[in-house]
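tokens incoming
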């Protein structure tokens, strides 16, 4: 195995494998499982993150026999191991020792039983968590086939509240603001008599009537979640070898739809309960869990959004590990033939350096009994496992060409934890939450094969980007607004959506014309907004929210089709300095919004590499030796013709192709073309 750098990249070759829980099995089949995993083409298993009670059955009494058995068996079959710290599911004895280990939330004290029910600030919890982390990592770090450690599991703040957290929050606010007078003014706490004369008077933010104060608490809780991971990482670093990595399976807000078939949701929203931007400092290898709909609801958009966000945390300089992806999972997620192959290639097209499934085998009891693994409850080979094995072997054959693939996108979509929290407090339309605003723009770009990075608003390095897209960037500091102004003046293109640049960084509405500080850049202003009723923009229905834009030098690209609102602009474009600023003042269906985004990108010289649109999806990257590689995927049940604009070689088949040649993309199919 290639030595692993302290920060970045997965060890070569690519990681393929599954989560494996020997301690869950109804009978001893360890050797058979390892044999089957090796036959499938896996090279790595992930263990230990879920069973603290097995590893420490009584306080200070450690039993790592299950861990040793798994590591030993993996070594006999040429498999590597990622060891997880088991701190997200506390043992019964710990909850009984100190009931306050169970978090006090807005809804009362948590009960024992569910996972992630603990208070990550509780001293008793932290003392015993440190004990199990040290004992486990010390016990396993010297094992040759242990290649890395996963700290905790899908970490968040879990809604932790209560007196201890409130006291810590008060001291955090004191450090942040310095004086109560400054804080009262900045947060507008005079409203409804919420101003205080001492930080010790600050009330429980869970019941705040002030959005600025509520969002301060949300920011604080995201920070303590990130600090929790940094704390764990610091302990692991004391024991791990230089060639071993530290990862974490960052997850996303679970997005649900109103339809019955969407009740299980999927990965898709910016995570509200931890800042990935801060927490990524805890890991040397970025990791993530990505779950998406399957069957006829497989679109690729969810995979690509999550992958683009995780990759962009380090601007695509490093690959990332998909720690968990589904195999059979929910009954409505049982994939059609070819879909698991397509999902896998989609991850690597986004810059992944490894793919692991949750989990190897289906669990026979407990909450996740019907979230099926690669093996069904009978443990027998099945079509799902065979397709994964075929896919892994295909990808392993491509690894010498594609390992280290780098992506350099010219467009970035800017997301914000602060905007997410603020718009949750002020739901301007409950049917159109922040993640819907983000996906309305992201999906429109994705569907037109305009690849983008997904970056946080706190990212200050915009070098290399030619276009920035702001979906509902509700909160914006003067510093950020200044950078937007400079970006456009310097030749960049900005495309903004409704409710952008509306408040300052403390969620206090700017007391001037909207969009604050950028009216000259956008060449328009507005002070009124309404709910659109029977309003259209170039034939597309305006939805949810509508700002009445008043041009002041901007080119009006479209107006509202309405008897009373027809004098106002709906879409504007303004030249400012060497660049352009576009503003869409309402919410449009994704297809219509995508047409405006495509026009803005085209005028900026950014055109899609292919004329096709979704369900044909193209993703590109560059190999370490400078070759351009294109993944072309068909997210549909129908065969699709594709005219390739490139000459080169299809890497899976080895066949040459010429520019202008028509290829047939089979249902749920993928081709990988290398130019040259």
């Amino acid at each position: 195995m290639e030595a692993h750098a302290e920060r970045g990249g997965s060890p070569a070759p690519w990681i393929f494998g599954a989560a494996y829980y020997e301690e869950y099995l109804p009978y001893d089949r360890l050797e058979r499982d390892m044999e089957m995993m090796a036959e499938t083409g896996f090279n790595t298993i992930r263990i230990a993150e879920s069973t603290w009670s097995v590893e420490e059955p009584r306080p200070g009494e450690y039993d790592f026999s299950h861990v040793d058995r798994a590591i030993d068996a993996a070594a006999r079959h040429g498999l590597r191991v990622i060891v997880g710290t088991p701190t997200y599911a506390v043992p019964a004895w710990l909850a009984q020792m100190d009931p306050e280990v169970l978090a006090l939330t807005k809804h009362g004290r948590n009960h024992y039983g569910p996972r992630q029910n603990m208070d990550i600030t509780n001293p008793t919890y932290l003392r015993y968590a440190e004990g199990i982390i040290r004992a486990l990592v010390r016990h396993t770090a010297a094992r040759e086939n242990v290649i890395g450690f996963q700290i905790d599991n899908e970490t968040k703040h879990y809604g932790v509240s209560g007196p201890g957290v409130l006291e810590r929050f008060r001291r955090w606010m004191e450090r942040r603001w310095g004086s109560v007078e400054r804080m009262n003014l900045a947060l507008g706490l005079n409203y409804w008599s919420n101003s205080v004369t001492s930080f010790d008077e600050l009330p429980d933010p869970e019941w705040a009537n002030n959005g600025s104060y509520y969002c301060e608490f949300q920011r604080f809780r995201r920070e303590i979640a990130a600090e929790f991971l940094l704390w764990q990482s610091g302990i692991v670093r004391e024991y791990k070898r230089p060639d071993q990595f530290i990862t974490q399976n960052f997850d996303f807000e679970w997005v649900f739809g109103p339809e019955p078939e969407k009740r299980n949701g999927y990965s898709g929203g910016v995570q509200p309960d931890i800042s990935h931007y801060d927490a990524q400092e805890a890991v040397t290898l970025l990791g993530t869990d990505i779950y998406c709909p399957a069957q006829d609801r497989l679109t690729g958009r969810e995979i690509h959004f999550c992958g683009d966000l995780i990759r962009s945390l380090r601007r695509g300089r490093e690959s990332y590990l998909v720690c968990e992806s589904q195999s059979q999972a929910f009954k409505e997620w049982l994939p059609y033939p070819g879909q698991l192959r397509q999902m896998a290639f989609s991850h690597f097209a986004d810059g992944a350096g490894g793919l692991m499934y949750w989990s190897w085998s289906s669990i026979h009891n407990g909450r996740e009994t019907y979230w099926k693994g690669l093996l069904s409850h009978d443990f027998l080979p099945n079509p799902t496992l065979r397709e994964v094995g075929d896919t892994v072997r295909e990808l392993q054959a491509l690894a010498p060409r594609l390992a280290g693939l780098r992506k350099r996108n010219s467009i970035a979509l800017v997301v914000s934890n602060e905007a997410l929290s603020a718009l949750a407090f002020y739901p301007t339309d409950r049917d159109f939450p922040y993640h819907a605003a983000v996906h309305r723009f992201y999906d429109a770009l994705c569907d037109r094969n305009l690849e983008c990075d997904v970056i946080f608003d706190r990212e200050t390095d915009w070098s290399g980007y030619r276009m920035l897209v702001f979906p509902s960037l509700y909160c914006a500091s003067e510093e950020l607004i200044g950078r937007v102004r400079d970006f456009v003046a310097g030749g960049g293109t900005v495309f903004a959506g409704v409710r952008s640049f509306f408040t300052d960084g403390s969620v206090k509405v700017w007391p001037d014309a909207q969009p604050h500080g950028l009216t000259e850049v956008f060449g328009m202003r507005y002070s009124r907004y309404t709910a659109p009723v029977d309003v259209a923009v170039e034939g597309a229905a305006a939805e949810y929210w509508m700002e009445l834009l008043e041009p002041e030098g901007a080119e009006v690209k479209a107006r509202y089709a309405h008897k009373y609102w027809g004098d106002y602009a709906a879409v504007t474009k303004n030249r400012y300095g060497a660049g352009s600023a576009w503003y869409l003042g309402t919410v449009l269906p994704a297809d219509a919004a995508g047409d405006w985004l495509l026009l803005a990108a085209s005028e900026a010289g950014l055109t899609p590499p292919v004329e096709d649109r979704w369900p044909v999806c193209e993703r590109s990257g560059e190999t370490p030796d400078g070759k351009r590689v294109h993944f072309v995927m068909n997210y549909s049940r129908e065969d699709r013709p594709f005219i390739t604009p490139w000459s080169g070689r299809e890497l899976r088949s080895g066949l040459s192709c010429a520019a202008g040649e028509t290829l047939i993309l089979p249902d749920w199919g993928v081709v990988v073309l290398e130019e040259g």
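note: The first strand starts at residue 15 and ends at 19.
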